[in-house]
Amino acid sequence: MPMKGVRRFGVSGKLSPRYIGPFEILRRVGSLAYELALPPQLAHVHNVFHVSMLRKYVPDPQHVIDYQSLEVSEDVSYKEMPVSILERKEKILRNRSIPLVKVQWQRHSQDEATWELEEEMRRRYPSLFE
């Protein structure tokens, strides 16, 4: 089963990790871990996280939290889907050139777009090239 584009919690992948919060801290567990109040959709995810996995929330009265639910499968993974192609270029080697496309992924900003092989993207996601 191909794992490209599949993101698991705790495993760093090709795309940079995203925060899926904010969530309330219920209690401190040990010196460097916190127990969080997770929504029912994430009930199968362990709710104790190391402090390095958390980000400080600075409250702003005009900031409305728009929590997008994340569809997580039973094995705690989710599939990243491409949204659009932002750019094209050719990587020129000594004897050949490799066509590349810059892909913006679902739930990621344009700054986090990645360069992928055009041939593979055409094969896996033909709807992007129509």
Written overview of the protein:
This protein has 130 residues and is mainly β. The protein folds into two domains: 1-79, no CATH class; 81-129, OB fold (Dihydrolipoamide Acetyltransferase, E2P), CATH 2.40.50. It contains one helix and eight strands, in the order ββββββββα. The chain has one helix at 118-124, and strands at 6-8, 25-29, 33-36, 48-50, 77-79, 82-92, 97-105, 114-117. The protein starts with 5 loop residues before the first strand and ends in a 6-residue tail after the last helix. 6% of the residues are buried. The model has no long low-confidence stretch (mean pLDDT 79).
Brief account:
The protein is mainly beta and 130 residues long.
Core attributes:
OB fold (Dihydrolipoamide Acetyltransferase, E2P); 3-stranded antiparallel β-sheet; mainly beta; 8 strands; 32% strand; 130 residues
